[in-house]
């Protein structure tokens, strides 16, 4: 839609955001221009620097900001039918101001010519008619407003996400999972058992998968006491065939899964060169491969009904490399990347009520990482399973896409994006990442 077109069908939310952007432009220009004038007036009156050349290009930013603000305001008004579009005229005025007051006018002109040339190539049909003089400034203004609008949206989403990440459990509205069929892998112990108990208390129907038949049955007995409808399956999650056969049984005997929680995991805890090949293969098969086969078995029906949730219990080791966990980190990095890509596929398919969540906790005191240590227990503590389950349930019930624990790891992950490698290695030593696995013992059968 161009600024000369009617406002029919224009999204109300877009119109509101456009007005916000216009208001920001206009206000910043109104404040910047007088402030610049005052600064120059005081500079000229100062005897010590009166004879120094004045950098008139400073005016460029204030004037262009003000004129573009008026332009954006008029464009926003034109969408609501308040006035006819005056955007082209104002844009031309802005360009004139820009070239009058900039010290790099020729560079700006060359740049604008290059932009216009590209616009002509990309929009030959619009440029072929008689309105080409007006079309270029219209498109430039529309693009400018759209870019700023994008920045505003990103800022708002970032602010909302930060607030949600820091809120205590229970403050956000939760969805109901009563009657939903919930499949939990690795349900025979640790987080899987605790998650099963929480969902049982909420009235969900449970399907428990684990290679440890005894542990799985013990979990089933616990949730039956809470009145849950529960079904157990002994499944080798390192086997694609075993997973697919079990999935077919679930579909025939119980129905379509509404919430899939990929919780099962194994860890070797050995230095890379000392780790046997078969253990590394097992790590990748359980921690990564099982995600592919379980999701592929159940996601189709979720998409068809536009209802479902896929939860991946990954690890903070899927965000940062850790000494002594090369194979484990590789599998968890893959799990995080898989979840992110899957979320994008679902968004592109417009399945608005199918959700993807990935949970990335630090070491958990479940026995799986028995013997690990932390140098900063107040900042990066060994997490208690009950706390992890509380936060994970909050993530699932509020459809939160990403959970990282403890909260300090959010800041570390943010810093990783811009710190140089040597600085990251220094911080790794400082926080004890290179030594945390020094006394690792684990357990013979490690399931998250």
From TrEMBL:
Keywords: Membrane, NAD, Oxidoreductase, Transmembrane, Transmembrane helix. PROSITE patterns: ADH_SHORT. GO terms for cellular component: lipid droplet. It comes from the Eukaryota. SUPFAM superfamilies: NAD(P)-binding Rossmann-fold domains (SSF51735). InterPro entries: NAD(P)-bd_dom_sf, Sc_DH/Rdtase_CS, SDR_fam. The keyword NAD applies. CDD domains: 17beta-HSDXI-like_SDR_c (cd05339). Gene3D superfamilies: NAD(P)-binding Rossmann-like Domain, Rhodopsin 7-helix transmembrane proteins. Belongs to the short-chain dehydrogenases/reductases (SDR) family. PANTHER family: PKSB, PROTEIN DHS-3. This is Uncharacterized protein.
